[in-house]
Amino acid sequence: MTEQSEKPVRRTRRILKNVLVSAAVLGLVGGGVAYTLVTADRADRSAPTVTWADPEPSVTAEDPAAAGVLRGRASTPLSKLLLPVPESYALGADIAGYGNDVEVPAKEAAALFKETSRGLYGKKRRAYEKEVDRLGIQGMAMRSYAREDYSLQAEVTLLRMKDRKSVRAFFEVRRELFEALGLRKGPKIKKYAGNTSCFLGPQPEEPRKGGEKETPDLQDMVCSAYDGETLITVRSYGAAPFDGKAVADLLEKQLRHIESPGEYV
């Protein structure tokens, strides 16, 4: 890579890092696009208690059409890249009001990114919005997964961009920010060690009494990865003992599915 070609990448990383750090400090990154951007604002507060709908009932092999629906949509090129709901999981709760299996068009996905600059003004905000435009966002697909034993909820987001270098730069910026915030590192995925990272949120508080029951906080973890033009985010929640390895396995299956979307079983 020449010095000239490196400059746009360095500039992208610098601008993205500045705006993400600003958003974290102001506590603006949360909900909606947070599944695609960062969860840095969670570094200074306990994990929220989240409830999700009962998993869909199991479907037998005698009903292949229904089984296909319950494994997730695959009607567009981007939705086909989302991991079909694996065994022992079902479609989970809605993601930030978007539903549990949804695709967001390019224009709306780019607008969601630009909303995270609302704590910036003037030149900084305009610079960030221009940088979002440079990413060439082509769409975003989201799907949530819930374990059938109710122990874990995971939300997977795929963000498609036209520029591979920007995808990698965004991944690196996010990883550096989480490390700078001192978040605990989660499990590693050996096969994809170079293009994945997982970080645990704050340590859950002791169970607190809520009415007649003790309600424990949930542990959360966010994993990031990239493959070509696709940036992958997996955000998960679970009660103790939190199964981070199960989340890492989901991410590994997602990456394998992107590599060979027609071969995953």
Give unreliable regions as ranges.
22-66
SSE pattern, N- to C-terminal: HHEEHHEEHEEEEEEH
Q: What fraction of residues sit in β-strands?
A: 15-25%
- Please tell me the overall pLDDT: 75
Portion of residues in helices?
25-40%
Task: Compute the separation of the termini in Å.
Answer: 38 Å
The rough form would be described as globular
Q: Provide the number of structural domains.
A: 1
Number of helices: 6
Major β-sheet annotation: 8 strands, antiparallel
Work out the oligomeric state of the chains in this entry. Answer: single chain
Give Rg in angstroms.
18 Å
**Strand element count:** 10
**What class would the helix/strand composition place it in?**
alpha+beta
List keywords for this structure.
265 residues; eight-stranded antiparallel β-sheet; two-stranded antiparallel sheet; 33% helix; globular
Give me the secondary-structure topology.
Elements: H1 3-26, H2 64-70, E1 89-91, E2 101-105, H3 106-115, H4 122-135, E3 137-147, E4 152-161, H5 164-180, E5 184-185, E6 196-200, E7 208-210, E8 213-215, E9 219-227, E10 230-238, H6 244-259
Helix pairs in contact: 1-4, 1-5
